[in-house]
Design brief:
- It is a single chain.
- With about 375 residues, this protein is of the alpha/beta class.
- The chain contains 13 helices and twelve strands.
- α1 crosses α10.
- The longest helix has 22 residues.
- The protein is elongated, with a radius of gyration of 22 Å.
- Bound molecules: 6-O-phosphono-beta-D-fructofuranose (F6P).
- 6-O-phosphono-beta-D-fructofuranose (F6P) binds next to loops.
- The site of 6-O-phosphono-beta-D-fructofuranose has 11 residues, from loops.
Length: about 375
């Protein structure tokens, strides 16, 4: 086979490990890996490059993606996909590995639609990679572990200066509409509060939560610093939340200014960069391995999933015969489950909401 490999959407640390593993395994099995630069945009315009094991050797140490990435909204149009298929046919690429998040996997589903396929058959397989961990039917996507470690490291540093001044810090983390990263890193960083979109709080309730956390921390003694992790997906921008919290704290004391200082740190794209953790290198490598071997076995329109939640696998997908921790899940089922997860409709969404609720009070102890 000629196996095309592309990375698409927001980059995630560990993508390079997946590219490297897919390249090496493809060559080891006697197939030819072909890199596609700049995601779907590069696929449409035919930006192909050869890939060989020597070239990808050290890539797994690096963040970002050696193939570059791009967001490509035009791929929603059949015309763009027709152009992409023509490139694949011209290059003789009959297998494609798409490494990316929700939007990228949706592109993979449309590209592999039998109704659009024409006369050049390409088998397509997806690898979930997104720091947001917002893709259903895989317990983790590539990049989540590194992002969480980056947030925790930053919070440890912020905690030092916050403690020195007894300040309140609102630390905003990425995650788009999903609060997974905010919640898990809040636990791991020992934060006093987490504000996530899943909890579905009004602006007033968000302010209440932070003010309650300030009161609880002050009441329990010890360190007077307060750390609240805010997910970027909550309705109220963090800068506005600070203003509202300041105003509330001032009104409580009856002073024009609160006697407690608040600060905002937006971690932004820092969370997406950096050397991948050992776990993300391993996850990327294992998924890259499974993706190639499954393509060669004949898999099509599937996503490689890492230990899917137990109740999700009943009757859906199958365990990989190449790695007992990986499953192959039909892409269409994954994307429908992802929609339900983000809309708060799926069992996993309900689990997450329950855990978010339960933890609010525990954080304050
Ligand atoms: O999906 C990954 C992600 O980093 C989100 O957490 C964030 O909302 C978004 O991408 C940022 O996208 P961009 O880099 O295009 O601004």
């Amino acid at each position: 086979m000629r196996i095309g490999i592309l990375t698409s959407g927001g980059d995630a640390p560990g993508m390079n490990a997946a590219i490297r593993a897919a390249t090496i395994v493809a060559v080891a099995l006697g197939h030819e890996p072909v890199g596609i630069r700049n995601g779907y945009r590069g696929l449409i315009s035919g930006e192909l490059m050869p890939l060989d094991p020597a070239q990808v050797g050290d890539a797994l140490r690096r963040g970002g993606t050696i193939l570059q990435s791009a967001r490509c909204p035009e791929f929603h149009e059949p015309e763009a996909r027709r152009a992409a298929r023509a490139v694949l046919a011209h290059a003789g690429i009959d297998g494609l590995i798409v490494i990316g998040g929700n939007g990228s996997l949706t592109g993979a589903l449309h590209l592999s639609d039998p109704a659009e396929a024409g006369d050049w058959p390409v088998r397509v397989i997806g690898i979930p990679a997104s720091i947001d961990n917002d893709i259903a039917l895989t317990s983790l996507s590539i990049g989540v572990d590194t992002a969480m470690n980056t947030i925790v490291e930053a919070c440890d540093k912020i905690a030092d200066t916050a403690s020195a001044h007894g300040r309140v810090f609102l630390v905003e983390v990425m995650g788009r509409d999903c609060g997974y990263l905010a919640m898990t890193s809040a636990i791991a960083a020992g934060a006093d509060m987490v504000l996530s979109p899943e909890a579905d709080r009004t602006e007033g309730e968000l302010v209440d939560s932070v003010v309650d956390a300030v009161r609880a921390v002050r009441a329990r003694g010890g360190s007077q610093r307060v750390m609240a992790i805010t997910a970027e997906g909550i309705e109220t921008p963090t800068a506005r939340l600070k203003e509202l919290v300041d105003a509330r704290l001032a009104s409580v004391t009856g002073q024009p200014q609160p006697d407690i200082e608040t600060r905002v740190t937006v971690l932004g794209h820092v969370v997406r960069g950096g050397q991948p953790s050992a776990f993300d290198r391993l996850l990327g490598s294992r998924m890259g391995n499974v993706a190639v071997r499954s393509l060669v076995d004949g898999a099509h329109r599937q996503m490689v999933a890492w230990q899917p939640p137990v109740d999700a696998v009943a009757g859906v997908g199958e365990r990989s015969s190449h790695d007992p921790y990986c499953h192959l899940m039909p892409l269409d089922v994954v994307l429908e489950a992802t929609r339900q997860l983000l809309d708060g409709e799926s069992p996993l969404a309900r689990w997450r909401a329950t855990i978010f609720d339960d933890l609010q009070d525990v954080f304050l102890l």
